[in-house]
Amino acid sequence: MDTKIIIERLVNRLLRGTISGERAVDRLLCEMGRGSRGLVVDQHLYGLDDELARLNYTTDTVEPGMSDPKIKKRLRNKVFVTINGRHFKNPKDLQKFRYGLIWIQTDRTDFKLLAKAVEAKLRVSNFAGNLMQTVRITNADL
Length: 142
Hints:
By secondary structure, this protein is α/β, with parallel strands linked by helices. The chain has six helices and five strands, in the order ααβαβαβαβαβ. It has one domain: Rossmann fold (3-Layer(aba) Sandwich).
């Protein structure tokens, strides 16, 4: 993800009040010097992106109200973490837009626990070798 875009999105979140100034600075510091461990987090999971950043993943979030087709275009070579996996699991879409999917299928909202589950799935799923796949996180994974 381009550094300029990351900074713009952090500033926008700060201005909208969805992130504190302290958290925005922490996120920016976490983003500095990262490799290509890029994840895009669903708008319904705000907070999970911060926890994933603490685990040294480069994260971005989907802007509220963004349509599914626009989201898919933004996902190229990224892994999308979402609770709305049914809209993104189509293998043809995975191939066409070149993204991977981690589908959160639990109502648990402990983002630290979810971040660790996402990290565990990333390790065993080998998205680096096979990006275009769907992996699910259920209560059994937590």
